[in-house]
Amino acid sequence: MTQTLQQIIDANPEAETFRFGDDKALCDQILALVRSGKKTATCEAARHYGEKGDAWPEIGRRDVALEWDGRPAVMIETVAVETRCWSEMDEDFVAAQGEFRDLAHWREAYRAYFERTGGWSEDMKIMCERFRVVEDYAEGNT
């Protein structure tokens, strides 16, 4: 039986919901990488978290990544979280993100993403999260 988002949240009241990316195509691409196991890390500008934004990820907390249309896609559990400056990103973390050829490719893609979603700077703070998939809500994967 397919669970609704409300049923999932009722069973996991601490869970945050979010979408990967900033458009449907990117969301779909990233969810495919997560489901395949190639993506086990993500990052976001630290400015998106806090008093007026999302809750900061916490080790052990389970959150629900949504399909672009708002349906539950996967539940992930945070296994590590840290803050870095843009200049502190490394090849190991980039590889765990599963989307990029190398650090230079990451910098190009994320600079464009950050510029689209609120601004980029050399000294900006970035939330870096490693996670594992707990449950996949796609038909046939539950």
Automatic annotation (TrEMBL):
SMART domains: ASCH. It comes from the Bacteria. SUPFAM superfamilies: PUA domain-like. Residues 18-135 form the ASCH domain. This is ASCH domain protein. It comes from Jannaschia donghaensis.
